[in-house]
Structures are given as structure tokens and as C-alpha cells.
Amino acid sequence: MMAPLYQESTDLSDVERERLILEHLPQVRLIARRIQERLPENICLEDLISTGVLGLISAIDNFDPSHKVKLKTYAEYKIRGAILDSLRGLDWAPRQKRRQAKQIEAAIAAIEQRLQRAPTEDEIAQELDITIDRYHEWLVEIRGLNVASLEYAGNADGKDLLHYIADEGERLPSTLFERSELERLLAESIDNIPEIERTVLSLYYREELTLREIAQVVNLHESRISQLKSQAILRLRTRIAVRWPTTRGTVTA
Q: How does pLDDT run across 225-236, given as a tens digit for each residue?
């Protein structure tokens, strides 16, 4: 019988633990860079990396291979979570930007309810009573708010959707049902956004391309890719917030 790829964390020697940390440092840098490119310039990359390393160490110390999850996958979750938690603590985003994001989400929701389809950019701008150029500026200005926003439903408490999915008893039928329902809802929501926005999300989240690389692939300017990505995420947040009640399956923090 083959030995597991990694020992349980409680059995790790100091040498093995240090080796795993060094082995996964590039993963920390990659995640930190991807998050930092969506933030204001005053957010230091090295600070994000330092916080990410703490997440990595937590992942290694708490990793249990019996859960049938790869260490790299678990580490990514912990690294990203540590960085995002530090950003939320900073409350770096101006209230005006948060207000703009809420206004866009409200406009999208109102138009979808009225027309029963995904609204165009012109329709969203008209609903907001601003020009299309100004709407595009809003999309660029709020891009930093979209960090981890596929998990975030925009509820008043500021909690992630993942807080409403139990992390204990992962094999319970109720938990599996919640996860499958959320996955179904997200897939359905993605199917209902414009094709170019689906492409941008796929290239960014699945292929892990940068905004600049995506711009080269689809032959659009990088700023336009940023707009499309922000808009796609706002569409998804709007649809999920409406269809996934935040009281459902709440887990006490």
C-alpha cells in the first residue's frame, strides 16, 4: 500500500514542516499577486504575502489527509482566507465605492425583475441615470471590492456565503445538499450572463490568467476586461443574493 503524500500535521517533524512551507511559498506569492492587482496601489504586496504565509502555516499545521483533500487545495483556501480577512480588517475601501457597488446591484436586480433577462450595460447606466462612460468608470473604480466576491453575497452582515455552509459534518446529507444547491445556483447564474463576461470569468478563475493576458486573448483593452469582470461579478452577486436567503443554513461564527 502506498504511503499518503503527506503525513498528518501532528506527525510532521520540524524539517518536514519547513520543507512544506518552502515548497508552497510560490503558491502564496501567486495568490497574493492576484489579489493585489485588484486593490489600490497603497496596498503593499509584501504585506499580503506575509499574511498569506501565516495562512499557509495554519494550513500545514491543521492539514488532515484523511479528508481526501490535497494540501495544495486546502492551503489555497487558508492562504486566500487569511489575506482577505486582513483586508476586511483594514476597511480600505471608501464608502463611496461600496455605495456605487450597491447601486449597481440594485439597478441590475430592478431591471432583471422588470425584463426577466440580464440587462445590457446601456440599460444599467440608464437605470442609474448616468452616462455609459461614467458607468464604465464606476466598474473600474469598484474593482477592488470584488475580491473574493464569488463567495460574498453582499448581505448586510458582510458575511461570505461560505459562512452559511457548515464546515463540520461535511458528509451529512443536509450539507451536501446545500453545497450542490449553491453550485447549481452559481452555474445557472453564470449561464445567464453575457458570453463575453462568462469568458472573462472562466479565463480568470479557471485558467488563472491575469487581466492583461485575458485582454490579449479576447483582443480587448485591459481596462475593458476589468470593467467586464466587475460587471459579471456584480451580476452574480445580485442573482445569488436574491435566490440564496442569508438565513438559510446559518452557522454561528
A: 989 998 998 998
Q: Give buried/exposed letters for 157-180 (b at 16+ CB in 10 A, else e).
A: eebbbebbbeeeeeeeeebeebee
DSSP 96-138: HHHHHHHHHHHHHHHHHHHHSSPPPHHHHHHHHTS-HHHHHHH
The C-alpha cell of 111 is what?
431591471
The one-letter amino acid code at 113 reads Q
CB 107 within 8 A of CB 114: no
Q: Which residue in this structure is represented by grid cell 473574493?
A: 148
Q: Decide: residue 90, CB within 10 A, 0-12 exposed, 13-18 middle, 19+ buried.
A: exposed
Average pLDDT over residues 174-184: 66
Other beta carbons within 10 angstroms of residue 241's beta carbon come to 17
Grid cell locating 90: 483594514
Separation CA 9–CA 253 (nearest Å): 25
Position of cell 426577466? Answer: 116
Q: Taking the CA of residue 201 as centre, how many other CA atoms within 13 Å lie in the half-sphere pointing to its CB?
A: 22
Compute the distance between CA of residue 119 and CA of residue 121 in angstroms, rounded to an integer.
7
- The span from the CA of 242 to the CA of 113, in Å, is 11
Q: What predicted TM-score, i.e. pTM, was given to this entire model?
A: 0.59
